[in-house]
Structures are given as structure tokens and as C-alpha cells.
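In the previous chapter we treated chains in isolation. Here, by contrast, the input contains two separate entities that must be folded as one system, with a combined length of 225 residues.
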Amino acid sequence: GENVEQHPSTLSVQEGDSAVIKCTYSDSASNYFPWYKQELGKGPQLIIDIRSNVGEKKDQRIAVTLNKTAKHFSLHITETQPEDSAVYFCAATNSNSGYALNFGKGTSLLVTP
Amino acid sequence: DAGVTQSPTHLIKTRGQQVTLRCSPKSGHDTVSWYQQALGQGPQFIFQYYEEEERQRGNFPDRFSGHQFPNYSSELNVNALLLGDSALYLCASRTGVNSPLHFGNGTRLTVT
């Protein structure tokens, strides 16, 4: 089955700096890669996603890049703000599994003022 | 427009008991999935329901079962609870299988 690895497990940045979280996946059939933000006491919230026919996608301060050859994808957050502090999860999936998500273990991001 | 709603928010059960968790999908969504999230871990897929049938299942024992109703709402049942079943149980919904998945805030189950 699919195995998703995520790094780093914790990340601390100063407000205004950029943050990068990286994930690798094992199943070459995977073709959908969402990113979720989870705040304390809440469920994961979809923040951006990318499909395998696209190499990069951007939404305001958030961008995701995908390298299918290397089987890795990354989340980039620019101009970080304290409210970006949360746990971020990457996931990978494909039609073979009915698009059931395989999650990484998460990255705890702390943005200090 | 209400998102995915789950009940109850918290639950405490004793080892060996049975539990039922409930979920109402986001308006317009017809596919419901359940995930288990242990503390400090990413969510793990339990199963997915579409048209009132279990369509996909993750690596969970038969003690975990579910149901989807005609109004698309869903239940997760866990029998013979173990201490290791303590976790946050997340319900998620989507329109069909190839669309973004939206999560509820989960039910925190504690087994003592």
C-alpha cells in the first residue's frame, strides 16, 4: 500500500519568514495530493490540493509543488503569521483505493511574533 | 451551509463495551468516510460509504463496522472496545469519490 513520509515533524519560524514542509510517497499510481491544517480541538481543514497533471499550484500565501519522478511534494507558506501555527498533514491517494487518503505523520508549525 | 457534523464530541467507555458514533455530511455530499486519529499521528482510513454500501475498507478489524442511511448520514460502530481504540474519530464527506474531502471536528473516544 501507499506510504507517505513527512518532514520535519516540528518547525519553528519567525513571523514573516517562509515555511516549507516536504512529503514523499511510495505508490507511483498516486495522483491526488491534498494538504490539511489541523488546529487544536478541530478536524483537519483542506488548505490546498494538487493533482498529478500539474506541477505547481498557488493560492495566495500557500503553494504546493509536485515532482512525480522523485515522488515528492512540498507545501510552501510565505509571509507566515502567528495564525498559521497548527499541525499540517500531507496525504496521497489514487483511484485504486477509492481515493482513501494516506496521511503523513504531520508537521507542527509554530510561528513566533 | 453546515459542514460535516459529528456527535457526540466526547465519549468515555469501558473496555469491552460497544460504541456508536454519528455523522452528518456536508450539504450536497453523498460519500462518507471514517478515519481514526491517534494522539500525535495522522488520520488512518477506516472505511468509505457510498450509496449505503461500504466501498473501501482500511486495515481495521471486523469490530469496526458502519452504516450509511438514505439521507447520506452515517454511523460508526465499534464492538468489544480495547484501550487502544482510544482516539479521535473523524468523519469526512465528499461528492463522489474524486473530489476534495471535508472533515468534521471529530469525536474524542476514551476507553478506560
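Chain B touches chain A at residues 4, 33, 35, 40-45, 48, 55-56, 58, 90, 92, 97-98, 100-106 (CB under 8 Å). The radius of gyration of chain B is 13 Å. Compare these points with the single-chain example from earlier in the chapter.
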